[in-house]
Structure prediction request, 287 residues.
Amino acid sequence: MHIRSGYPLYCAEALQRMYTYRPPYNGGYATPWLWYDGDQHGSYTYSQWQAKIVARMNQPAPVTVTMWGDYSVTAGTGTINAQFRNDGATTLSGRVLFVITEDSLYYSAPNGDLWHNQVARDYIPNQNGQSVSIPAGDSVTVTYPFTIQTGWDENRCDIITFIQDTQFQADSTKEVWQGGIKPVMELVGVEEDKSEVVPVSMVSAAPNPCIKNTIFSFELPISTNYRIDIYDVSGRRVKSLQGIAHTTQESVVWDITNEQGSRISAGVYMYRFESDALSTSGKIVVR
Prediction:
């Protein structure tokens, strides 16, 4: 993000969002700076960021997110939906935010950087987001229209959503409980028919935590292709499960092995469920 309006990648909403946090750097703001939640933040050194982010991903999340929507290339407009399920034991009250980002932008910045990724283009509806309260075991769906502006490459644009606490922690962060990402072009040709939307509450992995195996259970229209990719905390894919829904209620067993058939190590793993009907992600704890 550029914090001066004269720079090509400047986004006023992103700047205002940065100012909603307390200054972390010797009483002031600094860019680039690693802003992340749920852990002691710090460091404007890129080389230190990956380990911190991986460590953050290793923490259990109390929320599952599912995203879907539609997008018209001709009009440059669409609708994005996100459903947030509270998997915890207490009510979560926070704010839901959406942001359109653009990747692989070439620009010679004053600090010498040439390529810029996940650049914030627009917050939907704004940088403040929408207030939500989700009882334990329940879910809430948030829907907004969006526009891809002239000059943005829609093939490189993603819509990112996340749900965040409103309370500051001692280190000046606000806990982000879970997030999701949807490439804009994956929404092309999708008709916004609410009757075809599969509730996120019907996509689950159990038992979780697991020792021998876990079963993915979900609902899809018959003949829908699906794919479940499982990743370790470093982002390396360890297993891929895919198939075609033969009934509206499907289940797939993962026997806690990798692609080579060897049992994986104990730890936290992320899964990504993709189909024409929905996409969602979550975590599995292997003991």
Observations:
- Helices lie at 12-19, 49-57.
